[in-house]
Give the backbone structure.
Amino acid sequence: MKPIARFAASFVALGLAVGLTGRAALAGDADAFLGTWTLNAAKSTLPQGGPPIDLTLVVTDAGGGKYKSVTETSVAGQAYKVEITFAIDGKDYSPVVTPAPPGGTPAMSQSYERVSAKSYKTQAKMNGQVVATSTSEVSADGKTMTITTNAAGAGAAAGAVNKLVFDKK
């Protein structure tokens, strides 16, 4: 797989799957998504192979919005960090990826919308086209977050469904 295609696949499968985190807006659930979350690989599924060997998601309140940092190490040993500051307002926000994506990688963005007090929807886009939609939900006890991502568009991954389960630290 070419470096750009591999990066794009990783972005869609992982960075976007966790792109859906934010703070719930209703009283009592205001901080449901805030904190440090670690992947529970045994409960997660990715159709393009196994889940990453290490995936940590940190969500903090950034005043008027949220700051999210995703750190992933794949089975192949490649490490990525995706950072984004966003609001739950349906507008597009661009992540910062380290190491930088290969030259020629399409422009990436994410938008976030609240579905309920403990559930959010995000759309991941490449060059303005939706490539994945994710739903993120925190359990009633606040200890587990499940993120389900459906790939979209005309690519080979279209129709693929990924489910990542995280435990709150």
Q: What stands out?
A: The radius of gyration is 15 Å. The mean pLDDT is 78. The chain has one domain: 3-168.
